[in-house]
Amino acid sequence: MVARDFTVDLNKPLVFQVGHLGEAYQEWVHQPIVSKEGPRFFESDFWEFLTLTEWYVIPLIWLPVVFWFILKSIRMDLTIPQVALMMAFGIFIWTLLEYTLHRFLFHIKTKSYWGNTIHYLIHGCHHKHPMDGLRLVFPPAATAILLVPVWNLIKFIAAPPTAPAIFGGGLLGYVMYDVTHYYLHHGQPTSEVPKRLKKYHLNHHFRIQDKGFGITSSLWDKAFGTLPPLKLAKKNR
């Protein structure tokens, strides 16, 4: 299904075009188009709607779920300090998951029709159109599907009173990640820490895309040797 010398028509829905690029997909998808207006993904209005999410929908939907899981642990006689500790552990686990997914799944090399198509849907679209504000956060329907096996895994591994707090912490970490990611693209930070994070992340998009996989921090990039080269980082200042 890969077409030789295929050219993507940006005026048509993109999802089922990009697979035809074959090996040329990797180069194409890492040449960003800087525009706040995103492309159309699907012919179907229904499937197109499911790909569009305002950033504030994420905390609106998931923070109540976080609080519900916190209360679940409290009702099982976990003390407030114990809940806080388990939540901190959940957030810590999320930061590692954030890094791992971004590095090994979102930046996987593809060249087959369906490989390119799936990669474009999960992350390639963000690198091609990094300022598309309606596709910067993860659609809630997809998140809900993924949370089911995650919750079942945590229930299997952790003790019943601690599992909800760990899960709630991990989910809170995800909310913080998605909201931070949106802010790094569209916010105008004035204090030093968010300024550094914004420069760090935009460096990943526009200068060296195979380094700097951390979004909320550079902790795991430092731990696993994927910090961007110092000279390139300085040029970005």
Question: Can you tag this structure with a few keywords?
Answer:
membrane; globular; 237 residues; mainly alpha; Dihydroceramide fatty acyl 2-hydroxylase FAH1-like; 61% helix; fatty acid metabolism
Q: How many helices does DSSP assign? A: 11
Number of strands: 0
The secondary-structure element order is HHHHHHHHHHH
Given helix and strand content, the structural type is: mainly alpha
Largest sheet: none
Low-confidence stretches: 232-237
Query: What is the overall silhouette?
Result: globular
Task: Tell me the β content.
Answer: under 5%
Averaging pLDDT over every residue, what do you get? Answer: 93
Helix content: 55-70%
- Distance between the terminal alpha carbons, to the nearest Å? 43 Å
| Cα Rg | 19 Å
Note the topology.
Blueprint: H1 15-18, H2 25-29, H3 45-50, H4 57-75, H5 80-105, H6 113-128, H7 140-157, H8 163-186, H9 192-206, H10 219-224, H11 230-235
What does this structure look like?
By secondary structure, this protein is mostly helical. Helices cover 61% and strands 0% of the residues. It contains 11 helices and no strands. It has helices at 15-18, 25-29, 45-50, 57-75, 80-105, 113-128, 140-157, 163-186, 192-206, 219-224, 230-235. The radius of gyration is 19 Å and the shape is globular. Residues 232-237 have low confidence and may be disordered.
